Amino acid sequence: MDLVLIGEILAVLMFVGVIGTLLLGFPVAFSLAGTSLVFALVGWLLDVFDPSNFGALASRYVGSMTNEVLVAVPLFIFMGTVLERSNIAEELLTTMGRVFGTLRGGLAFSVIAVGALLAASTGVVGATVVTMGLISLPAMLRAGYDPKLACGVICASGTLGQIIPPSTVLIFMGDMLAGINAQVQMAKGNFAPTPVSVGDLFAGAMIPGLLLVGLYFLYTLWKTIFDPKSCPAMVVTDAERAALGRDVLTALLPPLLLIVTVLGSILGGIATPTESASVGAVGAVILAAVKRRFNLKTLREATLNTATVTSMVFVILLGAAVFSIVFRMMGGDNLVHSILSDLPGGAMGALIIVMFVMFLLGFILDTFEIIFIVIPITAPVLLNLGVDPLWLGVLVGVNLQTSFLTPPFGFSLFYLRGVAPAEVTTGQIYRGVVPIVALQVIAIALLLSFPALATWLPRMLYR
C-alpha cells in the first residue's frame, strides 16, 4: 500500500481516537498527547513518521511560555476572579436589576446588560452563568417570570464571555491565526503580509458581540409586547428607590469605568492586550480594596483560580502541539486541504463545513480543546482559499458560543442546571434556550453574509 495513503489513514484514525478517548473521560491534555504518541509509534513502525520531528516540541513549548501576548490570559482571569470573589459582580447585577426592574421585562433587560459587562470583565463563560444563575434566577422567579424566559436569558447572557473582548478564547485564537496567516501569506510569495493581532480580533468581535446583545434585547422586547405575563415588572420599595442613585454611583460606575478603560485602551491602540490586562488586574484589586472586600482570602482564591485555569489551558496547548506535529507529518494536513478544496461552493462551502464540524464538537469538547485541535488543521486551508483570518476567528467564536447553548449537550445548560432551584426543570431550561439558539443562527447567517461585520472596525481602527 502507498505510504502516503497509510499516513493519511493513520491521521484520520488518530483524530477519531482522540475524540473517543475524550468521550471515555480521560484528561484532555493527556488524551491528546498520549493518543498522538501511540499513533506516532505505529507510524514509525510503518515508516510514515519520523520521530525526529519531535525535536521541534521543546522550542514550541518555550515559545508558548514566553509569548508576551499569552501573558494577558492569566491577568484577565485574575481580574474577573477578583471582581467575582469580592462580590462586585453581584452588586452590579442587583443594582442593574433595580434600575430596570420596575419596567416590564426590566429584569431580563438588566441580566442581558450585566451579562455583557461581566463578559467584558471576566471572559469566562462558566463563572458568568453560575454567578447570574445564583443571583438573578431566584429574583426573576420571585418577580413572576416564566422560568423558560429567565433560563434562556441567563444562559445567553452568560455565554457572551465567549465572544465579547477580552475573551481568553479570542486571545489564543488571535495568536494562532497571526502565525498561520503569516505562514500562508509567505507560501503565496507575500513576504510583507498585513499582520493579524489579538487587538484586531478584539475589535472584530465587538460589532458581532453587540449584535448578539441587540438580538437578545429584541427578543425580550417581543416577549414584553406579545407575552407580558412572562416578564412582569418588579416591585421596588420607597427605601430602595431612594437609595438607587447612590448605589448606581458606587456599584455600577466603578466597574464600568474599569471595563471601558481596559477595552478602550486596546481598541484605541494605546496599549497592547497584555498591558491592558495588567491595568485591569490592578484596577480590580484597587476597586475591591476601596470597597473593603480585598483580603488574604480573596487574594488566595483569585490566585488559585487563576493558576488552575491557566495551567489547564496551557497543558492542553502542549498536548495539542504533540497532536498537531504527528497529524501534520503523517499527511493529515494534505488530506484536509484536498477535502476542503474539492468541496462544492469553494471557500464558502469549506467554511460552512468546518463551522458545522466545530459546532458538533462543541457538544463534547471544551472551547480551548476545539480551537487547539481544529484551528491548526483547518485554518491554513481556509486562509489559503481566501478566507479573512479576522472573519474566521469571529465566526468560530460565535459558532462555539451557539454550541454552548444548544440542547441537550450545551455546557452553559449544565452550568445553570447545577445552580438552578429544584422547581426549575431541565426541560424548562432546554425550552428556554431554543429561541436564543435561533437568534444565534441568525447572527451566524448575518456574519456569513456580511463579513464586514467582523472586518470593518479593525480596519477602521488600525489600517
Task: Name the descriptors.
single chain, 463 residues, mainly alpha, 21 helices, globular
Give a quick account of the main beta sheet: strands, pairing sense, barrel closure.
none
Order of helices and strands: HHHHHHHHHHHHHHHHHHHHH
Low-pLDDT residue intervals, each spanning 5 or more residues: none
Helix coverage percent: over 70%
Termini distance?
51 Å
Give the strand content. under 5%
Say how many strands there are. 0
Q: What's the tally of helices?
A: 21
- Mean pLDDT across the residues is 86
Class derived from helix and strand content: mainly alpha
Secondary structure layout plus pairing:
Blueprint: H1 3-23, H2 28-45, H3 57-65, H4 72-85, H5 88-100, H6 106-119, H7 125-142, H8 147-158, H9 168-187, H10 198-226, H11 238-242, H12 244-267, H13 273-290, H14 296-329, H15 332-341, H16 346-361, H17 367-384, H18 389-405, H19 411-419, H20 426-449, H21 452-462
How would you briefly describe this protein structure?
The protein is mainly α and 463 residues long. The protein has helices spanning 3-23, 28-45, 57-65, 72-85, 88-100, 106-119, 125-142, 147-158, 168-187, 198-226, 238-242, 244-267, 273-290, 296-329, 332-341, 346-361, 367-384, 389-405, 411-419, 426-449, 452-462.
